[in-house]
Task: structure prediction
Amino acid sequence: MTLIQAIILSIIEGLTEFLPISSTGHMILASSVMKIQDDSFVKTFEIAIQLGAILAIVLLYAKRFLQGLTIYYKLFVAFVPTAIIGFLAYPFIKAYLFNSIIVAISLIVGGIVLIAIDKMVINKKSNTDILENITYKNAFFIGLIQCFSMIPGVSRAAATIIGGVFNGLDKKQATEFSFLLAVPTMFAATGYDLLKTNIAFSKQEIILLGIGLIIAFVTAWVAVKIFLKIVENYGFKHFGYYRIIIGLIFLIFLKF
Result:
């Protein structure tokens, strides 16, 4: 992996991790376009730079995480389904679903769903005054719907936002709950992947990892700030259109 490739992948990770457009899908597509060799370091790099994106959320929402334990209980309940199903399904997903065709189709289907959801929530009122008061039942079902994001291209953010809307949250609350739930989910997934990776890094690879973490952190911080404003003013439909367009473009790219 070259420095330029590392920078591009890190920017893509930071920009897409918390948007409903699938960071994993974009990383797979970008690696395919740039013809990056899928070796052990590349796999570790793509996993490790997620920590930079997670840190952006931790710092942006530090005040909420420090307000009390209630939000932790709700996030834990939402995390449980993903932890169980993810652990059991991990080998199958890695072996059979990580390919460009699956990603492109998932992007298109997810885009159609987002556009439909956007029409449903234009004037939707929340059933919950603040996120901390979301019921344990609703938190659990949001976590259950998050499990669909294990399919590359579906998007963890898209799945949890859709889950939040269907469980009584308005679009802003659903988006913020998605951000908060990303912390335990991504820490667990990233940690599990890194534990299964057993390689020694060269000096150049350590430098690439450091650069990647910083770039992913900065771009994720910016992306989250902008995303919240877009959701409040315009909803989710534009992300749905984007998913459909990028999915179709990549299907054409794969064919020709």
Notes: The chain has a mean pLDDT of 89. The chain has twelve helices and no strands.
